[in-house]
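Hi L.,

As promised, PTS fructose transporter subunit IIB:
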Amino acid sequence: MEINFVRIDDRLIHGQVASIWVKETRCNKIFVCSDEVAEDKLRKTLLLKVAPPGVKAYVLPIDKVLEVYKNPKYDSFKALILCVKPGDVLRLIEGGMVMKSVNLGGMCFKTGRTQISGAVSLGPEDIDALNKIHELGIELELRKIASDSKIDVMSKIKDL
């Protein structure tokens, strides 16, 4: 499986992803990678229905995504990886998934989180995971849509 794009967005598949990021990244598969979402039957069903035409979506737990990633049977897949939180991306990397860059697109504000942009708020566990990803040499960039200028995530969290 070829990883065309990795995005952290707690909305997962929505208008921006379906209409902009899928075209921009030239993917033919969308993988929602989350143990919690994969167990939520209603949410999983809804996400599978909103994938754009011609692009197959999967909602799978992290370990299953890693199995698919490592299986040569799926080498033709050009994947857009969607995760709810940085910790899930870190688990994918630690499980052997190779990626060059991670996009932060949307993480809603909750108590205990610090807002770093209009669309992204991070808790301490998110910052820890992002620091670990950064230490592995993986680019961390902040953009809502493809035409936005990339903002270095580390410049936003260095003082948190």
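The longest helix spans residues 124-135.

Thanks again for sending the construct details.

K.
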